[in-house]
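Q: Fold this one first, please.
A: Sequence and structure below.
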Amino acid sequence: CSINFLMAQPVDTIGTNLDITIKGLKIQGTLLPAINKEKLVIIIAGSGPTDRNGNSPLGVTCNTYKLLATALQKNNIASFRYDKRGIAASSYNKINEADLSFEDYINDAKEIFNYLKDTLGYKDIYIAGHSEGSLIGMVAAQHTDAKGYISMAGAGRPINLIITEQVAAQSPVVAKQTDSLFSVLKEKGKIDSVPPYLLSIFRTSVQPYMLSWMKYNPAVEIKKLKIPVLILQGTCDIQVKTAESGYLYDADTKATLSVIEGMTHTLKNARADCDDKDMKTYHDPSLPLNEELV
């Protein structure tokens, strides 16, 4: 592994771009320093092609992680947020989707932690994962000497149950097919025939990743942590329901649980009665983060 500094920018607003090489692949991210040179939070992005700022080419432009990093800096806490392998500036032609595993993301988080500590000298490092990043960070934290772990809108059950439940909200019939295909994948390690309308979940190239992801149960993994744990969840989250934070807390009652009224999956505020039908919190980068979250 190696690390190089690229394009140093004024640290008050932009930060420093870091290029970290892990097993031949470069992971790029932004270090936003603070006056306190010992305390830092690693921010791990959620699922899909979500970049270091919390945005996605699929139409998400919320700047959630960038806003969080800025808020932390104002509270004298440094942060490092990064593009996951295969995403944005960490994307390379040599990455084959069929070869990607959940463990790759876990290992990347561990290596990033080690460099921030061993090379840059940060002593008090906390790991904060959002959505899918919650589980990535949860497992990575088990293999580091992180000072604490933070789950932001993280699931409390295996991903196959979460996805099946999400599908059920649209079609109970398709949900039964989804559950059946997950059972086949778990038993046989692959699925030979997938309906066209479920290819986004079970296409051949993504099956290995899904198989590696579904074997982790967040409620089991969080029990393995021996460090302070903070669980954050919003009541207006349409992707990860409030009950998921309860599953995590039930598994680790020593943790601190904060269920934040009105907060969406993007860690911003929905309108009254959780009305966010126009998905404004997903598309408006100018909207601020929920203050209680910060």
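Q: Good. Now the second chain.
A: Here it is, same layout.
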Amino acid sequence: MNNLILVRHGQSQWNQERRFTGWADIGLTEYGELEAKLAGELIKELNINFDAYFTSQLKRAINTLEIILKVLNKTDVEIIKAAALNERMYGNLTGLNKDQVIEKYGSEQVKIWRRSFDISPPPMESGHPYKNKIDSKILTESLKDTFERVVPYYNKNVEPLIKSKKNILIVFHGNSCRALLMKIFNISQKKIVDVEVKTANPLLIRFDENSHIKDYKYLDQKRAKKILFNV
């Protein structure tokens, strides 16, 4: 039996401020660092010897993984950083306060932008303050767009390791995680709207000898959302 653990990064400064983050490279809060440390402690209790560590190219995910590795006493290991695992690009919503956006556009529209599968937020405009701070070739992304970069990366770089009975740890983002969960658990486009990934709560997925999912659970049961997989 081998294991895959998925972790959304700890609370970032913009999570705390309820701002759309996307590709903006925002760091962790002090609470987010504590969340990451707790995630590391929960993972350490499993006594798993990991074979590979993956994260995105954004520092809130990288720092979360670094904190976890420190707890695991694995500070001298290779970390694979992939842009394909980055959060979705939130377009012109980047940096905006979610409550103010809800007040302007309505909660239903904002839910569609945040949770739907194939509808993107408004594209980032040329005068946006983050236009020149992030890759401007992509102006916005839907979850579908995120899925189409996360899943091929997983299929090529992670799935072969799982089939080789390796233990893998991935630390990334809410939407890149949701995209991967769609693939792993065959979640429908309709049901993915209801899937929320909490910050720094490790999801343990165990595979049997045939690389089929044996079972899965959130390690912090107190903060676990209802698991809506296999739907």
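Q: Anything worth noting on the second one?
A: Strands lie at 2-8, 52-55, 79-81, 168-172, 203-207, 213-218.
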